[in-house]
Amino acid sequence: MSQGKLSVFADGIPSFFVVGTPFQSLCAVEAINHFCIVDYEVFVLLFYNEKRIDQVDTIFRLFDIKYSIIHINGYSSFKFFIKGILKKVTYKRAFVGNYYSITCSSLAVTKLAKFGAVIYMDDGNSTISILKNRLSAVKLSMGYKGVRLLVHIVAAFKSISIERYFFSVYSDIKTDKFIVRTNDLSSITHKINIDYQCEAVTLFIGTNPEDFCKENHIHVEIYNKVLRRVLTKMNETGSKLLYIPHGLDNSLPIKDFCDDVGIEFIRPSVCVELFLISRNYSVVEAAGFSSSALFNIKKMYPEALVRNLRFISHIDSQDYSDIAEYYAQNGIINEKINVDGDGFTFNIGL
Q: Which of 71, 263, 268, 345 fits a 20 to 30 Å CA distance from 101?
């Protein structure tokens, strides 16, 4: 693990946070506690299609953290420059939840004082590829590129350190580009009571099918068939099986399937990590399709058997290859699902 300059990772520095999802919000809670921050502001960016604001709200209320909502539209990034560039600012440190969000970066550089620094937090396991210096090759609009250029110009003018620091659960990844401080999720892991009589459960962690299938070049029908087959096999083990859907997944067929075969379908009001602790569950086994929650569950419950189910199609995804490789290094079993046209084969050791 690399350590940053004392001025960046020092305790007690007044800071502000820019987050947009439940896990980013949990990371903000961790940072506030880890760095002993008393003077802070939290901003929640609410995009038009974000359906998890209730989870974000519940997480911050659990830890008694106040926040402000900023509604985001297509002109938000540029608007932050116009409204914020001339305002007097006092913060020297910003924690940003999405490395790729130009809106987050715009807000950060305009609210930071000279010689400030941006520390990025995890937005799921996309951090793995970022720390490996394999950045997402998404097509960027001219408007995006223009605002990004402005962000870097303002950052350079104000001597702000940007795209340099991370506070991450993936801190053991060797990197020359970034300086990383470990997020050990201590705010929640210390709540795990090993002496308490916990209920043993098996989990399946859902994903967002629309994005997942597009990124892995598979049909949604194939995804649903595989998911039903896997859930059927897991349900035969006799252990209590819970299906936790992704916060953006509103598909009804899987819920109906779970109801039909006796699998408990639960949509938590918080992120899955907090949910498990609030219910005093002890996870004995978990599976999912490259979910970041699989890694966190393995850290929270080291003795749990955790499986990452990976689709292998004619076009391989470098991001998902990075995730699978890193998960294997951390005790997570990778199970391959081979896809050929409209068919699939797998031999998962359930």
A: 268
By residue range, what is the domain housing residue 286?
199-346
Same domain, 205 and 185: no
Strand order in the sheet with 333-340: 264-265, 241-244, 199-205, 281-288, 305-312, 333-340, 343-346
The verdict on 321 and 214 lying in the same domain is yes
Which tokens sit at 317? 């995804």
Q: Which amino acid does the sequence have at 300?
A: M
pLDDT tens for residues 129-145?
A: 899 887 665 555 666 67
Residue 320 inside a domain? The answer is: yes
- Amino acid making up residue 119: I
Q: What is the pTM of this model?
A: 0.88
To the nearest 10°, report the CA torsion of 8, 9, 11, 17.
80
- 1 domain residue, yes or no: no
Query: Where is 118: in which H helix or E strand?
Result: strand 112-121
pLDDT tens string 291-348: 999 999 999 999 999 999 998 876 667 888 899 999 999 999 999 888 776 666 666 6
Please provide the DSSP assignment of 31-91 as one string.
HHHHTT--SEEEEEEE-TT---HHHHHHHHHHTT---EEEE--TTHHHHHHHHHTTS---E
